[in-house]
Amino acid sequence: MGRYLTVAAAQMGPGSENKAENVKRMLVLIKEAAQQKVDFIGFVELALTPFFAMEVIADYDHYYEEQMPSPLTEPLFKAAREANMGMVLPYAEKDPLYGRYYNSSIIVDCDGTILGKYRKTHVPGAMFLMENKQGPGGTAQKTYYFMEKRYFAPGDLGFPVFQSKKEGAKIGVLICFDRRFPEACRCLALSGAEVVFIPYNTPGDALLAGMSPNMNEIVLRTRAYEDFFYVVGVGRAGIAYGRQFNAGSLIAEAGTGDVKAMVSTDGDELVSATIDLDKVTAGRYGYHGFCERRPELYRPVVL
Ligand code: CDT
Questions:
Q1: Considering only CA atoms, which residue is closest to atom 9 of ligand 1?
Q2: What CATH architecture applies to the domain 4-120+157-288?
């Protein structure tokens, strides 16, 4: 008898400035997930707001939540709990004690218990990105800043793994840019993560900056392959701030990187798949060779 879990990626189009509107759309996605008997649903990075890091904004305090659940998010907790569904809920966090801001995600179990929090570790900073494909020297090139460093401190919670009451599933979370760091993913694998939720906001310009338009899919599937966990990638879709966001939410198979499920639209869409958690440890320490690791030789990776 395996340990099976049905997981879902709740992709969302551009976020509204009205946070309650975003919550309404999320409730629709939870309702759909309940109909599909989903055990754990993952939302997109900064699900409660627009991806405001695309601009320099003077007044931004209103984007952040100081507590969870907050009055705004209580309906999400209630709907998920009533559907016996766990939830990965990414949001802009203000730590009231220190007044620091983080790009975070709360991890909520099927009975509404908060299992814990993850704070995005790798925060991308101001970068010049080319608006056209000609690159440096091109005539129509334009630059912009990717402003996350203005709005978020680097996460300080490491790479925790959370255990759900549902099948004892071991759940990890990385947020967007984090997925590009194999070290972060390997930390989760070595801590036993069986399924990793990866919410993201990837604007098209980031893909033009010398990257393949397939970058997101390649990275998500590669992490599932090399770290032998299931990946639930949850993307922002549609056009916002004049830029096309990547979409492409998918669920990738542990150990192979095969796509188990993928969205087909460029807007709000739920995609789900049933995963076999028992496959993970067996495969990781079996044919995938984790027992042959030589950490004594990997010192450069941690310096
Ligand atoms: N949100 C986020 O972390 N986006 C990064 C792009 C950074 S490069 C401008 C990503 O990896 O998609």
A1: 206
A2: 4-Layer Sandwich (3.60)
Q: Is the dihedral of CA 173, 176, 265, 146 positive or negative?
A: positive
Q: In angstroms, what is the span from residue 202 Cα to ligand 1's centroid?
A: 5
Which one, of 192, 206, 181, 188, lies nearest residue 130 by Cα?
206
Q: Is the dihedral of CA 219, 224, 225, 228 positive or negative?
A: positive
Regarding pTM above 0.85, the answer is yes
pLDDT tens-place string over residues 65-95? 999 999 999 999 999 999 999 999 999 999 9
How does the average pLDDT of the chain come out, rounded? 92
Cα 12 versus chain centre, distance:
12
Rounded to an integer, what distance in angstroms lies between the CA atom of residue 77 and that of residue 118?
Answer: 17
The mean pLDDT of 170-186, rounded to a whole number, is 97
- Counting beta carbons within 10 angstroms of the beta carbon of residue 4, is it exposed (0 to 12), middle (13 to 18) or buried (19 or more)? middle
